Amino acid sequence: MTSLETTDGGWRAGLTVGAGLAAGSFLLAVSFGAFAVTHGWPAALTIAMSLLVFSGSAQFALVTALAGGGVVPALLSASLMNLRFVPMAASTARYLHGSRWQRALEGQAVVDGSWVAAQRVDGTLDRRKMIAATLVQWPAWVSGTAIGALAVPSTSLIHATGIDLVFPGLFLVLLIDTLTSRPRIVPVAVAAAVVAGVTCRFLPTGIALLLASTTVLLTLVYRTSPRQEPAR
Fold first, then answer.
1. Alpha-helical segments (H) within the chain
2. pTM score of the predicted model
């Protein structure tokens, strides 16, 4: 085993990174479990969803949209949330090993934190690090959901411990990081905020969330718009 695998990558590095990510995932999962149950979901179904789906953003979007706008907006919102995994999985495919079934199983390790942590400086991906990091996060997500769904902490306890701020805080950090590295999409974020703020006043939450998420299509304008030629 090379020094890269023992210090900067490999199973051990993945478990170390995954432990830190799992701590945040656990708190977020407790919040989700309580959130889903208070919005009418049975505890068993809530836990089963975390067991099978393992996508915090999509799960929150599904529960929120389903409560405010029906099945179709809920499914569309969750699907839009998870579209990011298509290019992530495509870039990871060549690093997976074994038969189709094994590669499909290893592909389940493509989650946000693990995938980012597994990126190497040379542009390749550390398969072992990604899988190990996800193996730590998944049980933390499921157990946290179970605790939140079964115990259903009171609203006062959730506010006092700040659990209710974990999910919006996570997405705020991701948003700030994205806008810092890609300032050209700031108008897209502003447009989404305006659409969400206006439509929430007149439409159910699920439909407002769906309409706000469609502003991502504006990124296509920035990619396909022709560059101005320098004046001669």
1. 3, 10-38, 43-52, 56-69, 71-82, 85-92, 100-107, 112-117, 127-151, 155-161, 166-181, 186-199, 205-213, 218-224
2. 0.68
